Amino acid sequence: MKYILVTGGVISGIGKGIIASSIGTILKSCGLRVTAIKIDPYINIDAGTFSPYEHGEVFVLNDGGEVDLDLGNYERFLDINLYKDNNITTGKIYQHVINKERHGDYLGKTVQVVPHITDAVQEWVMNQAKVPVDDDKKEPQICVIELGGTIGDIEGMPFVEAFRQFQFKAKRENFCNIHVSLVPQPNATGEQKTKPTQNSVRALRGLGLSPDLIVCRSAKPIEMAVKEKISMFCHVEPEQVIFIHDVSSTYRVPILLEEQGIIKYFKQRLNLPIDDQPSDLLMKWKKMACRYERLLKVCSIALVGKYTKLSDCYASVFKALEHSALAINYKLDLMYIDSTELEHSTEAENSVKYHQAWHKLCKADGILVPGGFGIRGTEGKLQAISWARTKKKPFLGVCLGMQLAVVEFARNCLNWEDANSTEFDPDTKNPVVIDMPEHNPGDMGGTMRLGKRRTVFKTENSVLKKLYGDEMFVEERHRHRYEVNPELTHCFEEKGLKFVGHDTEGNRMEIIELENHPYFVGVQFHPEFSSRPMKPSPPYLGLLLAATGTLNAYLQRGCKLSPRKNDSYSDLSDDSSPEKEFPYSDTS
Hints:
The protein is of the alpha/beta class. It is built from 21 helices and 21 strands. The longest helix is centred in the first third of the chain and has 17 residues, at 113-129.
């Protein structure tokens, strides 16, 4: 097993996750089996109880693990399926060690950070690195480990010490450290400053780790003189200094790394049995990046949520929309709308934000209401759903978005004015959305209906069934504590809101579709977690197709992205034109 540790310096959020994912992508393109581990130094057991404003979205894995959003990056870049133990937290490690102490496993010794915590980290990494993550179920050959936070953080010290020891246990030819640092460029002088990187590398060396590669992040391309300066003061060869500047899309990052000779370096440093040149996989990434940058047609989607001040709160939703837009050769224009600004009130309606929010909603080609919790902003979401239904705007509701679509339909089409979810009004006379007692025991963490579950289609005449390839069932990831009341579904179906997908027992409503509407779909699961750059999620793809007026042509073509070949998306050439690859128009 070869281990690649990715650490960060100067600031957090510098892009360690994208760098780690890109390195994994490059090595996978060379024919190696790659897995990934994310270490978060916080004391929480997992990310499940976080507000999205704390660490961005909560990413859900197949096994129900609620983890850091960087594991979403790993899965999308590497096209693998990770497990909850691929996310290590301080809370998990200490809980593991304390449980062993309670069982008497330490034979009465004083339990300390060194060696017990550090040994537990190393043991966890070595065990989890062997777990297969590809469909072929073979043991990985490379494990990319991202250490969250910034070097020097007090909470990260036990993990740094663990890897200081681990580098000798694994041997030099099996362990490599990549340090990602910031090279700022103050506007006052315009000069790129290397001192923060020098200090960060010095702090890392003082803790016992010497970086093999230094990845310098910057707003603009870095000059050669800066590279030579970092090489001299950080005690590495010039070819060990890699520059990654801000680019138009993250699809470019693996290309930039490969162009700077990283494959040749890894081959020599880790003694890897690979060629100097990557396989076709990296070429597909390059073609995808080129296509992304030259797209001209734009499709605008309004995302109506309540965590709109930070884009990471809906990271997977954004990526799923982007994958779908790219698949049909459109540039995505995602407009974030705070649902509270859509709500009717005398004060709100006189505000500028209210009119701006409604202006965005009205001009959007499609509307998306994602998942969420709590009553704040729900009335605004209901207004957006009502607009999409009555104005025939393509609409996708995910999790809470689907539940609110049912509430809106009950109020305005069934005339149940007080219809609501028991999450927001426990005493409502028409509880169209109810809680699941077995998933609501009082504890907050890890108690929802989580992970991959099967949804069975109950009708042949379903848009989503066709988009999924006419499968009898689909398996998608869930994260919810409330569900549509199954006792009332017949009232909705009589009025045209069809529950076309159920769970395997037929008790839980998973998919809704509205008759006589271009695209009005709600799903209880979170399809965005399974979306991949070259395998867009069918519900999101349907939304983009409907929003661009090409859904009917796509369905008539047998759900192919190109009339010439079924897999055109993954093997486009650089000189192919988007219009030729997806020539559907409103009149086709």
